[in-house]
């Protein structure tokens, strides 16, 4: 998830907030990322040749206090990295290499700004100020300014977006002909010279990062089209703007040369777009990274989903989730980045919820990078059931460098099949390493269930160790039974099309969810961990009302397939009502759903379910 600071797009929401208010907002963005089961944030810390840390090279960013050079009263970058790592989220530090200001007046910059001290470095173009990429001293300076953050802070990646040379404006080309005359020896074509300037920036920055912190990745999120096949047979079957020619970014070469660690093209078009089809571009980028060590992520236009003025395709709640489904056909795609945080939170038309339900139901490990080595397996010293769940304690592996741990839970007892750890449904979560020991509490453990727990270690580049020894925790006795409420953490998922209400007192818990009936596949799901395959009684709770639906479809994911049972929610509420007895399989999964697909009128309600082993 991108968190943009320029123009206060995401964070801080406005200038002049107190440090406490800024910090609370930022924690909220991290909590959103964890809620959506993301594993990294990409945070803009150098938006306009300024800094979100006490840099000795550039002034404090104006987007913090409203005044460039104004001290915010704390170190935002140190705070942001620490908070992200406390949640075991990777922190990708997002820099803009060359943008100086969103205006053209040097006198508006802080007196200490390098562009004011070196006015010959700056170029006014299309209403903005840029550092001139063709001046070698500029290239060296921006690298030094960015490396200051790399050297001083525990970031996980340096991230650049699509701004190198500026996009073409209406007032003619970028005015650097004099710079070309001064520094362009050996180049007969100004375009080739500009591309070489950007290539040098990428190549040199990569070498500098790898020399001091080889675990810090260099990632770029370029414009989604390199070149069109009509221009270059190596290009994609598209007809849009070409970043190679328009902004002099030879992204394909950066991949082939291995100068970057990951590339996240901004494929901001819908499936079937006439000029830039999403399906064609993921195919092209997948082929481009094949045979290299460069990881491929996809920049997703989450900001388009449900937004006013966007193409009709983006008004379909399924468009975004269909992108992620299509990605599965290309194993080289290892993840997605969503632009931007405020759009993930807005969840217009329920598109983000739909994608999360379809693809992000469980935690996921970040993809392993090149270099590094898996640490030794940890030693799981204890697993103890208490009032708050099952608490695990372990010791770090004896060898290797452990940066984090992955915690797994398997239903039942018996031998562990190694394939069980490849099943994402068994991953409970991850924990950042600190010291020689670690701990994790499984608050979702059902009291009557027997589980096996295992832990693995991860190095800084996410290489995973062998599993620890297994610890078995038995049920507390009696018949297994679990209640899942619509507010149970990790136990309920529903799109934004489902409202929340606490109006009726006969509800279970603090509130319940409701939705209008409609001929769409938009169920709310209750998930549970069942200890063993067998026969289970399923009961449902809802607050009844004469205006509710007379034939609400409940879906039960049985061992033989999904079964539908219909309930008249106009009556019989405020108590457990038996839906039926079903053969269910063991494991953690969606068990009971409430569907909106019914021809009868009145709200359908999802409140709580109880599942009892017979």
Automatic annotation (TrEMBL):
<feature type="domain" description="Golvesin/Xly CBD-like">
    <location>
        <begin position="482"/>
        <end position="613"/>
    </location>
</feature>
<dbReference type="InterPro" id="IPR003790">
    <property type="entry name" value="GHL10"/>
</dbReference>
<feature type="domain" description="Glycosyl hydrolase-like 10">
    <location>
        <begin position="1"/>
        <end position="316"/>
    </location>
</feature>
<dbReference type="Pfam" id="PF02638">
    <property type="entry name" value="GHL10"/>
</dbReference>
<dbReference type="InterPro" id="IPR033803">
    <property type="entry name" value="CBD-like_Golvesin-Xly"/>
</dbReference>
<keyword id="KW-0732">Signal</keyword>
<dbReference type="Pfam" id="PF25275">
    <property type="entry name" value="Golvesin_C"/>
</dbReference>
<dbReference type="InterPro" id="IPR013783">
    <property type="entry name" value="Ig-like_fold"/>
</dbReference>
<dbReference type="InterPro" id="IPR052177">
    <property type="entry name" value="Divisome_Glycosyl_Hydrolase"/>
</dbReference>
<protein>
    <submittedName>
        <fullName>Family 10 glycosylhydrolase</fullName>
    </submittedName>
</protein>
<dbReference type="InterPro" id="IPR017853">
    <property type="entry name" value="GH"/>
</dbReference>
